[in-house]
Amino acid sequence: MSQQPYSFFQSVERSFNKAAAFTRFDPGILEQIKACNSVYQMRFPVKLDSGEIEVIEAYRVQHSQHKSPCKGGIRFSDEVNQDEVMALAALMTYKCAIVNVPFGGAKGGIKINPRNYSAYELEKITRRYTAELVKKNFIGPGIDVPAPDYGTGEREMSWIVDTYASLKPGDIDAAGCVTGKPITQGGVRGRKEATGLGVFFGIREVCNMPDVMKKQGLTTGIVGKRVIVQGIGNVGYHTAKFFREAGALVIALAEYEGAIFNAEGLNEEEVFQHRKSTGSILNFPGATNIENTAEALELDCDILIPAALENVINGENAPRIKAKVIGEAANGPCTPEADEEFIRRGILCVPDMYLNAGGVTVSYFEWLKNLSHVRYGRLEKRFTENMNTHILSQMESLTGKKVNEADRKLIQHGAEEIELVHSGLEETMITATREIVAIWQNHPDIPDMRTAAYVSAINKVATSYAELGIFP
Hints:
This protein has 472 residues and is α/β, with parallel strands linked by helices. The protein is built from 16 helices and twelve strands. A hairpin with a 5-residue loop joins strand 1 (38-47) and strand 2 (53-62).
């Protein structure tokens, strides 16, 4: 009799339990950390453009309040169910803890395929969902702060913040009730590319560790590495972009309609424009078509980046994976069975729970910006430029030499908001990577990087509970 496949939430619990064995905490504390604190399942009617009334199924799960507010995206997908939302909320708790972002984990979902609805219908659904959250006190800058996820973006976030502000008149921090907003509505520059850039920073740091690379049979650094990216949505597109710009070769790109391969490397923007004009990435000039998109995951490469949906690498296809490093840009792309196979074969899987934390890290910066009511760089940019100009002129005066124009501009430059956001994200990802690898290397019994990441998260969340005095 074949074993029943694990649900997504059970997979997360299984990974948690594996890591909990390497911690020193009371089983009761571990049970509290693992449990979802609040699950809000709702149904509400919406009148469609046709005049029909449809009952919409939606969820909001708050996994942990060890830090406030809770934080997590809202996805629009007809695959949404309670188990998935609970699993993603739990991963948000661990993700925020690992990258030292002071939020508890949450997640939301509306069970619809957004392609089947007009913009006006989507607006009505989003606004009604927000009103339901407000009714039950499940949203607010100090309570629970949603963000975009699969099937949602800036447009939906602007509807949410407008609805919240209209229901909470006079709340000066209303803009902080949601992140991923347009810049004009209090968004932060750098949010769009944040997850892909975070994936790049995390993998780059791993690739810069000589001992880790030696174990994988690879040279250090990104330059020349052969990379395959599955999914060219926002995350996959930007991940491919940053790897290519750093000198890697993106040899294959995969989407649901198929995949394309070119050993000389692909340009993600050209592929994106080709798909925009033809409706498919297939038949891209100079590339070989791969009709079965799943086969692209099994091609020979150095780094494989699954940036689409969960469970795409499982017990069935994991034995055929040839990559030496897997970077989980999507949420839960590898099953526990796949993890066991990777451990057996010595494949390094850099786990989703911290690797794709770029989005929540920059969301944290946006939330701080909303609470402080001032954009990053506004107060110090001009001062920094004036000071740098003064120091430069003093140096030139003392040495009698002139700095060339390109270097002059670089030295004088004061940081813009986007540069400060990227810098903060880089620091976050490098620090988190080093912490996880240190735990992994200092505990020979810890089998893989995912378990080490969970140990890091459990340590931080349990410490928070202890410091709150919830547990003796």
